[in-house]
Amino acid sequence: MPTASDAGSADQSHVAAAVAVGPAHRFDEARLTRYLTPRIPGFQDPVEVRQFLGGQSNPTYLLRAASGDYVLRRKPPGKLLPSAHAVDREYRILTALQGSGVPVPRTYLLCEDPEVIGTVFYVMSCVDGRVLRDPGLPGLSPRDRSALYDDAVAVLARLHAVDWRAAGLADFGRPGSYVTRQLHRWIGQYRASETERIDAMERLMEWLPAHVPADDRTALVHGDFRFGNLVVHPTVPRVLAVLDWELSTLGHPLGDLGYTCVPYRLPPSLDGVQGLDLAALGIPSEEGVVRAYCRLTGREDIPDWPFYMAFSLFRLAAILQGIMGRVRDGTANDPQARERGARARPLAEAGWAVVESRLTWR
Question: In terms of pTM, does the model score above 0.85?
């Protein structure tokens, strides 16, 4: 059996990995400093600005000030869709989650004046640690892998337990019918960006709307909950912060859990863990993750689990097809866009395989 690669460092600080700001994302740093100094208590110049390699949808910067490190996240420059890159929504939910038990950075301010650095932005605390993008968690011991998976599931369960009404987020999305609305949205997006016929996708688009579970509960969902969006303690297998809340909304909690479990259905070549010796690596099985989540949230079981897994794989396949559509239209900026877009087919096939097998645990 193949095992997780040891390539890369599990100990590298994501803050230390920040790089010089690229030409397309530069702004007037002196003007930013003048703006922040009277508005963030204790903020002091001089300020060095660097850029994180991630956060390509909303460029993210490290501000190294005399008073400490901060993180700035902004809308990208250029013409944008009206509802895209909603950093104001990110700021709102991060602020609402302070003290909730969900680990998030501290928020300092939201600037909606585009004159300061060219686009809307917000500033939050800098949580230093490791960002482990490979779900196989290379470089960690089996014991630490197990503990970190357990902690990540516990964080997700705490997020879904947040009283979103009491947190002032009753208008953060539309309660109810989340899955139906998501299917309508992503089927439409897929059709608009379709570049070839994918039989598995056609089958999923027929099967999923006809089998939406009756369970229609609503929770606060992250929308992209995975290790790549978690900051892990530098030495302890514990989640320090959940990042990248751009897709967060009011939705169905099992949509979040299904997305988190997608790597179990994909091989390492597609950023998954399928085929790895999970027991030897200390990584819980998919069934183990689901059981842990049920225990933490008071569920007995999830009888419709195959649906949520197939739905999550379909949704991700539709997103990747959108990237391929931009390649077709000549509007893709990511140099790896074609390779990423080509993943739509294997993800759709993995989704249909779940439907056919009705999810045999493995």
Answer: yes
